[in-house]
Design brief:
Strands 1-7-6-5-4-2-3 form a 7-stranded mixed beta sheet, sandwiched between helices. Strand 8 and strand 9 form a beta hairpin. The N and C termini lie far apart (about 55 Å). It is of the alpha/beta class. The longest helix is centred in the C-terminal third of the chain and has 23 residues. The structure holds pyridoxal-5'-phosphate. Pyridoxal-5'-phosphate binds next to helix 5.
Length: about 350
């Protein structure tokens, strides 16, 4: 892989915005008259650290990824959009992705006017490296893989993902938003082996903090430098940085929630599977699962009438009449089951 040839020429030669606070860095100061901030209303009056160094140092411990390999953004969604803006020339380049998968890869492709090439998974929702590679051409800059995959729930076979990373001469993104829910070895542990790998993580799922909007991209420092060049200078606000650190210090609680969710999943899935309405239930490595029913829209509306919202994935490739159900609290799962049991198919 030749990183300079992958990056858009305008980004390669871009001179990024220089933050006031960047220029004095490393020296001591107590009077800050450089950024036109208001001197009152501490602790919210100052611009936050543009590179979030304290938070990255703590996340580095948790994730086992050095801070130089880390980009933090306003949700993973920011990292997804930045990947297009860094690598993909509108109307010229294209990207390849497994299908079905997380919808934002395609939406961001269209926003950036980049061709999106979905490659169908097999009936077991597994990807095939050869098929993905065959969909690429000279203008393919990025391959999107999601594992555990949304909305199917399963992990991609490690061997197939490795083949794609090794053989594709562009960027391979492995979105591991749900990796905390599985025993599978995460790809973020293998970053030093693969200079073209970008791994996405988020605080929105296992970390129980969707509201604070904190996403992570892990990659070789040369790729991280590109993210930092293109991002908004102060892209992660101070409240988010503080709350994220609080969650890191709160790990016993998180661990307890995680255990409860996995126990609930273990009880809920077989109970749903034995209902007559359930034609198929798919194995999962995430905090949600996919079921196939006779008429997904009818069941969806029935549940809405009972105040229960699930995700109707019927219009997604390979997911005819499928609903995606998130594992909730014991009480919520109980309400779901009791509604499902009263449903007349
Ligand atoms: C939920 C989810 C995310 C999270 O996105 P955020 O912007 O960090 O909330 C990312 N990828 C996948 C596959 C998801 O399902």
């Amino acid at each position: 892989m030749n990183l300079e040839r992958l990056v858009r020429p305008n980004i390669l030669k871009l001179k990024p915005y220089s933050c006031a606070r960047d220029e004095f860095k490393g020296r001591d100061a107590s009077v800050f008259l450089d950024a036109n901030e208001n001197p009152y209303n501490a602790s919210l009056n100052r611009y936050p650290d543009p590179l979030q160094e304290d938070l990255k140092a703590e996340l580095s411990q948790v994730k086992g990824v050095p801070a130089e390999y880390m980009f933090l953004g306003n949700g993973s969604d920011e990292a997804i959009d930045l990947i297009y803006r860094i690598f993909c020339e509108p109307r010229k380049d294209n990207v390849v992705a497994i299908s079905p998968t997380y919808g934002m890869y395609e939406v961001c492709a269209h926003i950036n006017d980049v061709e999106y090439r979905p490659v169908l998974l097999d009936e077991g929702f597994q990807m095939n490296a050869k098929k993905l590679l065959a969909a690429t051409d000279h203008h393919t800059k990025v391959i999107w893989i999601c594992s555990p995959n949304n909305p199917t729930g399963n992990c991609m076979q490690r061997q197939e993902v490795e083949t794609v990373i090794k053989e594709f001469p562009g960027i391979v993104v492995v979105d591991e938003a749900y990796s905390d829910f599985t025993q599978a070895r995460p790809f973020r542990s293998d970053l030093p082996l693969y200079p073209n790998l970008v791994v996405l993580n988020t605080m929105s799922k296992a970390w129980a903090s969707a509201a604070i909007r904190l996403g992570m991209a892990f990659a070789d420092p040369s790729i991280i430098a590109l993210f930092n060049k293109v991002k908004y200078p102060y892209n992660v606000n101070i409240l988010t940085q503080q709350q994220a650190r609080e969650m890191i210090h709160n790990r016993p609680k998180l661990q307890q929630w995680m255990t409860t969710i996995l126990t609930e999943r273990r009880h809920l899935m077989p109970a749903v599977a034995e209902l007559p309405l359930c034609k198929q239930i798919y194995p999962t490595d995430a905090n949600f699962f996919l079921i196939r029913v006779t008429d997904a829209s009818r069941l969806y509306n029935y549940l809405v009438d009972h105040g229960i919202i699930v995700r109707n994935r019927s219009r997604v490739a390979l997911c005819d009449n499928c609903l995606r159900i998130t594992v909730g609290t014991p009480q919520e799962n109980c309400e779901l089951l009791s509604a499902l049991r009263q449903y007349k198919d």
